[in-house]
Amino acid sequence: MKTVRDLTDLKGKKVLLRVDFDVPVDDKGEIQESFRIKKQKETLDHLINQGAHVVIVSHISDESVGKSFASLIPQLHVLLGHEINFIKTVSEVGSYLERYLPAGRQAQPALLDNLRQNEGEEKNDPEFAKQLGEGFDYYVNNAFAVCHRENASVSVIAKILPAYAGFVIEEEVNRLSDAINVSKEGKIIIIGGAKASTKVPVIRHFLDKSEYILTGGVVANDILKEKGQDMGSSVVDENSKELLVGLDLQDPRLFTPTDFIVFDNKILDIGDGTMHSYMDIISQAKMIVWNGPMGLFENQAFAKGTDEIAKAIAASSAVKIMGGGDTIAAVNRLGLLDQFDFVSTGGGAMLAFLSGKKLPGLVALEYE
Fold it and tell me: Of 92, 243, 305, 335, which one's alpha carbon is 20 to 30 angstroms from that of 368?
């Protein structure tokens, strides 16, 4: 896989940089979780310091800002340490480049507004990709979190421009590959949260590659349901039987909660017994990979399981890898993010990679 390290002559070159700025924003327009944005700074700095003219592209889904980056520009300036010019539409990108290049001076980076305002983005439309890449010398993908999606700015664009991986993707691939390939002895996988359809494949892939898999959240609910437990009104997937087909639910390496915090006939957190059992396993681990909270952590009444598991992992001497938006939010709330050896910027992409799938964005970068 070619990376920005392979680009040795960037002075005056025009670079289209795909990043991940899809972050939560509150009703006052304040960015609530800036981790993904800050992770983009190293690659952006490198390109600018090498003399490149950079146009940044991303998407944002938060309705609080009307799915537009316009009101977030001042915050992005602070987080990235660069003045950010704003381009409203893809048709204005060409004129933006022409304004700066004839002067022969370094241009401030610019951000094109939400890519998903263009229907061609999610349709993976080659014509939109061609329009997006017009006038650029290179394409750099630094958005690991969208590499599992067939989007025009992720996969097709790499057929139009010489394509390179940014530092974020390089690090993600290296660290997550290590998690897969390292010896199973002492390797613990912790899987929680919802979206069992993306998480069960990880369990399948790691069952023979790890010592134990600890489950919580809806993923655990689905397993318990199929093992015959009455789940009351708890959240479970209707197609849980189909999701879990072929997985040995009685495998002694696969742990599910044995007690719970229940409210309104719903399981909303793991119980103290399960929590301490999981913490004992964590204390003996050599590597821990965590994606997904143990319960409804957003409500403090049901956050204890997630909080205590996070503290136990942070205190462990194991190599600690974690990812997923909710997991990051839970750990960041405790001020423990810097206690982890690696925090993935990807949620779905991290899970897809760990389950052994080929990610379209990485295939486009010729990653094998």
Answer: 243
Q: Is 61 annotated as a binding residue?
A: yes
| 269 assigned ligand-binding residue | no
**The total number of residues written for the chain in this structure:** 368
Shared domain check, 166 and 234: no
Average pLDDT of every residue of the chain: 94
The answer to whether 326 is a known ligand-binding residue is yes
Average pLDDT score over residue span 299-312: 97
Q: Which residues of 268-291 are buried (b: 16+ CB within 10 A; e: fewer)?
A: bbbbeebbebbbebbeebbbbbbb
Q: Are residues 29 and 161 in the same domain?
A: yes
- What does the pLDDT look like over 328-338, one tens digit per residue? 999 999 999 99
At which residue do the structure tokens 């650029």 appear? 136
Asked if residue 209 and residue 77 are part of one domain, the reply reads no
59 known ligand binder = yes
- 149 annotated as ligand-binding: yes
199 is in an annotated binding site: yes
Which residues, in sequence order, are bridge partners of residue 269?
Answer: 261
* pTM reported for the whole predicted model: 0.92
Whether residue 368 is contained in a domain is answered as no
- The answer to the question of residue 332 being in a domain is yes
Q: Can you give the residue range of the structural domain that contains 154?
A: 4-171
pLDDT of residue 318: 97
130 and 259: one domain?
no
Q: Is 26 annotated as a binding residue?
A: no
pLDDT digits (tens, 9 = 90+) for 253-305: 999 999 999 999 999 999 999 999 999 999 999 999 999 999 999 999 999 99
Q: Is 148 annotated as a binding residue?
A: no
Q: 299 lies in a domain?
A: yes
